[in-house]
Amino acid sequence: MTTHPLHATAGSATRSAARTSVAAFAAILLGSFLLYGVGFAQPQQIHDAAHDTRHSFAFPCH
Predict the structure, then answer these.
(1) Are 39 and 53 in contact (CB under 8 A)?
(2) Quick one: which of 61, 6, 13, 22 has its CA closest to 39?
(3) CA–CA distance, 33 with 60 (Å, rounded to integer)
(4) Tens of pLDDT, residues 27-44
């Protein structure tokens, strides 16, 4: 069994919080792109797919 000093645990918690924040920010960016960016896409099939996806999640768009 390995024991870690107390200060190493605090550093791990800080890194974990930073990684969680980065992942949350990336998810928000991707979600925003899917909801808004693809909705304005020129090919009709991509626009329709984004439109239907928004409605399937009960997200109003009109």
Answers:
(1) no
(2) 61
(3) 16
(4) 999 888 877 777 676 778
